[in-house]
Amino acid sequence: MQLTGRVVLVFGAGSSGPGWGNGKAAAVLYARAGATVVAADRVLAAAAETASIITGEGGQALALAADVTSAASVDAVVAAVLAQFGRIDVLHNNVGITDMGDLSEITDERWARVMDINLAGAMRACRAVLPIMQAQGKGAIINISSLAGGVINTYPYFSYNASKAALNHFTRALAIQYGKQGIRSNAIMPGLMATPMVQAQIAGQYADVDAMQRARDAASPTGKQGDAWDIARAALFLASDDAGYINGVCLPVDGGLHCLAG
Ligand SMILES: NC(=O)c1ccc[n+]([C@@H]2O[C@H](COP(=O)([O-])OP(=O)(O)OC[C@H]3O[C@@H](n4cnc5c(N)ncnc54)[C@H](O)[C@@H]3O)[C@@H](O)[C@H]2O)c1
């Protein structure tokens, strides 16, 4: 699973808290496999932290500010990567948020915000990068979805469920439309992962963070939640030539939870 000489662009390469988020771990693992990694994030300091971990390990990285809700911002980042490195081999769309609430509380604005970030954000990145991959005759797109895009759990996040289901189907459509041009598109559906994002966005559903971790461990078929490195390793495989005939897959990385829930 080597990426020597490849250029990888990760949107959402920072972490929403201390420790390892899915995007941050994936960015670091791509670099460990030999790729030059562009870490893009709405929070430049978060992208810079990821990039500095990579360069501190002797890898190649560049941090850029990017907001996936803005086509101009996404286009500018893609243009900057092309100008500096001349190619983009892997596009990794990690950005995603949850929004909890009874449907009666969900305003049109709240619904649209989740769709804009989780679904249209990935579309904007793909729209900007695909012409580059088409010109190369090769590329790999990895969209970070969620098991919630395939099966329903008990969290009250309607827009999240809907946006991730749409992201899965968008990924399949990309796979079919661009497969003959050498571009593979796949999604990863993380299950119950112990990451900073969960502490920030899910813990409110439980008495406290410890109660959340116990409940999520107990709900996993392995007895333990996964972590960001589980997602990163799956992403590295899908990005590599070892996954050369894998296209249009929405891969659960969930310790088997989909077997119970599906
Ligand atoms: N942790 C889990 O249990 C779990 C489960 C299923 C799916 N996921 C998915 O994993 C992804 C997030 O994983 P993570 O651990 O890296 O989360 P994270 O929140 O730690 O990192 C996401 C990064 O995206 C950035 N970001 C937010 N909005 C942005 C925007 N508009 N433009 C650019 N950057 C933006 C944040 O600043 C942050 O650095 C999401 O797509 C999420 O749905 C996570």
CATH class: Alpha Beta
Strand-residue fraction?
A: 5-15%
Number of helices: 9
Terminal CA distance reads 30 Å
CATH superfamily: NAD(P)-binding Rossmann-like Domain
Q: Report the biggest beta sheet as strand number plus sense, adding barrel if it closes.
A: 7 strands, parallel
The ordered string of helix (H) and strand (E) elements is: EHEHEHEHEHEHHHEH
Helix-residue proportion: 40-55%
The radius of gyration computed from the alpha-carbon positions, rounded to a whole number of angstroms, is 17 Å
Instruction: Based on the coordinates given, report the CATH architecture.
Output: 3-Layer(aba) Sandwich
CATH topology: Rossmann fold
Mean pLDDT: 97
Give the low-pLDDT segments. none
Q: Which shape, going by the Cα principal axes? A: globular
Class per helix and strand makeup: alpha/beta
Name the strands of the widest sheet in spatial order.
Answer: 3-2-1-4-5-6-7
Annotation, overall tally of beta strands: 7
Number of domains: 1
* List of distinct ligands in this structure: nicotinamide-adenine-dinucleotide
Q: Would you summarize the structure shown here?
A:
With 262 residues, the chain is α/β, with parallel strands linked by helices. Helices cover 47% and strands 15% of the residues. It is built from nine helices and seven strands, in the order βαβαβαβαβαβαααβα.
What does it look like?
With 262 residues, the protein is α/β, with parallel strands linked by helices. It has one domain (7-253): 3-Layer(aba) Sandwich (Rossmann fold). The protein has nine helices and seven strands. The chain has helices at residues 22-32, 44-56, 71-85, 108-136, 158-178, 196-201, 209-219, 228-239, 257-261; strands at residues 7-11, 36-41, 60-65, 90-93, 139-144, 183-190, 250-253. The chain has a seven-stranded parallel sheet with strand order 3-2-1-4-5-6-7, with helices on both faces. Strand 4 (90-93), helix 4 and strand 5 (139-144) form a beta-alpha-beta unit. The chain is globular. The model has no long low-confidence stretch (mean pLDDT 97). Bound molecules: nicotinamide-adenine-dinucleotide (NAD). Nicotinamide-adenine-dinucleotide is lined by residues 11-12, 14-16, 21-23, 41-43, 46, 66-69, 94-96, 117, 144, 146, 190, 192-193, 195-198, 228.
